[in-house]
Design a protein that fits this description.
Structural class: alpha+beta
Helix content: 40-55%
Shape: elongated
Number of domains: 4
Strand content: 15-25%
Oligomer: single chain
Number of strands: 22
Strand order of the largest sheet: 10-22-21-20-11-18-19
Length: 624
Amino acid sequence: MMQVMMLAAPAYLASEGELPSDLSRLLRWASLIITVPVLAYCGGEFLAGAWRALRNRHVTMDVSVTLGLVTAFAASAWATLSGRGDVYFDSVTMFLFLLLGVRYLEQRMRFAAGNALAALASVLPASVQRFTAYPASRETERVSTAALCIGDYVRVAAGERVPADGSVVEGVSEADESVMTGESRPIAKRQDDRLISGAINLTSPLVLRAEKVGGDTTVAHISRLMERALAQKPAAAVMADRAAGWFVAALLLVTAGALIYWLSAAPQRAVPVTIALLVVTCPCAISLAAPAALTAAGYRLARTGLVPARSQCIERLAEVTDVVLDKTGTLTEGRPALTHVVLLGGDTEATTLAIAAALECGSEHPVGRALLQASREYPLATEIVNQPGAGIQGTISGIIYRIGTPHFVSAVAGSFPALPASAEQQGTVVALGSTAGWIALLRFSDTLRPAALPAMRRLQAEGRRVHLLSGDSVAATASIADSVGITHSTGDASPSQKVGYVRELQKSGAVVAMIGDGVNDAPSLAVADVSIAMGSGTDIAQSAADLLLLSRNLAAIPDALWTARRAKRIMRENFAWAALYNLIAIPVAAAGYVSPWVAAIGMSVSSLIVVANAVRLVPHGRPR
């Protein structure tokens, strides 16, 4: 572009007749030679896009761009060959340069979050130290990360990246999970704590038991979600493309009318006016108005550890009126600890915990993990059936056992008097019984996630209704709700009841955001208007969700709603600016007051304004 502008400068600066004809021809031919590869290579994407659109009987932005480029180049080539008329090679190269420059900026912003996750996957260690016979032997062998299998024990030295998802079986250290979760502070890790692939072990060696390897790791899963989100087109972007198509069709009619008028009024001005009109009204700003804002919003969310998994989620977030949260693993840490055992039968506490652990050995529920920590040795349970939201049934030595809610257990153990409310408020109560009668009540306590209280207060201060919906007991659910200021709470909710609760809110006109982490939350996540799954949750919950919260900080939720509202406002501003620009540019260009090179600058400036307006969504500071 700069070279062709330099060649065009003498013609602009010289008075009429001052530039020798042979020098003028030389400059024109030099400009033609430079512009041909520019149009063929740099403009090839637009030419191919226009051909595909016309072949499919559609009118797109590429059609408008191609018409402007081809018309300007054809008129200039004819003027160069015939020696008569003006040339616009400088306008062609400037138009392409500025158009590609704006598209480059938009693409960089669009793929920033996805590239960050791809970079994380690429820095996983190429090889690891795998124990040959842990814990009997401390010998290790160096193997490739791809050779790891589920159940392998790996030594992760200080300063090394974690090669697979798993749990700590030995050692105490801290891990840097900032690349995945957005949390800058190190996270303490000790026995039974989970480690995610890609995290950096900071202080001391750890022994890791691999539980998810290769394509099943958190890194791989999140990368797939990001790829799916980037491949989909948001509804606002689809609407903008349709609007741009109608706009281009209307523009072609206006351009045809302007061409007919100038051919009759001043034929020598017909071509430059037509070129300027095609270029200045290229609908780049309209096409970028929604994608630029949504891309910037998605990048901001990813920086806080909230990864969009579906393209429409940001638009839906902006409309949310009600936020529904699960309790265990969502509002709380999801790491309950067994605090008290109330024996109801003749078994000892050790036997009771062994039976409970046997039933929970294959469960992903936080209570199940707590029981496995409390009892390392347990008998074999068979015919295990998991009823989400209620409990687990299994057979041990020919006897049917159940663990879960008192109502669920009472179906085999018989009726049981109601538990005192004061006892339930101290934590989660799980019942254990068999066909022989009641065995025990197990009480668990859990802690709230960091920033849970200020996050809930902020959501309500911004006018949203917050609901706590849990399968835990009514009293325990109400106790947690009171501690964070949530006025709407429902306990003893089964998965179907959670779905019904969400649908009732939707029938009343609410736009519902559901936040959960367990198998029992997956149906309600699927029916909510927008759903958020915790990064520590189950795979089925993550698959059903629109967004994935990788960090432990619930402050990301109100931040996300703020970002979505801001993105919607910026989209409206972008559409308003694009409309205003075209309302001014079309009549001015049609009247002949805009030259082709000025038109190229005007088109690019309008697109740059749209992108720059969207970039305001990704400041270095946190949202207020």
